[in-house]
Amino acid sequence: MGLYTNPFQKVSGVGKILGRLVIRLAFDILDLHTLKLEVMEDNERAIKLYTKLGFKEEGKLKEFVNRDGKWIDVIVMGIINPKHK
Ligand SMILES: CC(C)(COP(=O)(O)OP(=O)(O)OC[C@H]1O[C@@H](n2cnc3c(N)ncnc32)[C@H](O)[C@@H]1OP(=O)(O)O)[C@@H](O)C(=O)NCCC(=O)NCCS
User: Fold this and answer.
1) In angstroms, rounded to a whole number, what is the distance separating the alpha carbons of residues 56 and 36?
2) What is the best residue among 45, 57, 61 to mutate for testing ligand 1's pocket, by most ligand atoms within 8 Å of CB?
3) Which residue from 10, 27, 52, 77 lies 20 to 30 Å from 45 (Cα-Cα)?
4) Where are the domains of the chain?
5) What residue's CA is closest to ligand 1, atom 20?
6) For ligand 1, atom 8, which residue shows the shortest CA distance?
7) What is the pLDDT tens value at each position of the chain, 85 positions in all?
8) Which CATH superfamily is domain 14-84 in?
């Protein structure tokens, strides 16, 4: 999964609301086992948000993306449905 807020509407807290909704839909309604995501290592804001939502780092894809000539690691994060533990 990945969260993308509207870049033209700078309303603080939207990411958190979206994230909680997605997790509720995935775990409480669809009863999925796990959610996984990939996030670029320099995307501090997204990593903080995903961590606050309960995602944990599960691995790293070394130099997976090239942006403007610079190789960037991509972090793999995941969360397990707490009802399945
Ligand atoms: C990543 C994204 C979804 C976050 O949504 P948001 O609405 O900006 O996030 P929120 O306002 O809900 O903030 C959530 C948390 O992020 C962190 N945060 C907020 N602003 C921050 C900043 N400028 N720098 C670092 N962390 C920040 C805080 O920990 C915050 O929690 P808190 O308010 O309890 O302290 C949004 O910025 C976005 O769409 N970015 C572009 C697309 C993208 O990169 N998506 C991720 C792809 S993997």
Assistant:
1) 10
2) 45
3) 27
4) 14-84
5) 45
6) 15
7) 999 999 898 888 999 999 999 999 999 999 999 999 999 999 999 999 999 999 999 999 999 999 999 999 999 999 999 999 8
8) Gcn5-related N-acetyltransferase (GNAT) (3.40.630.30)
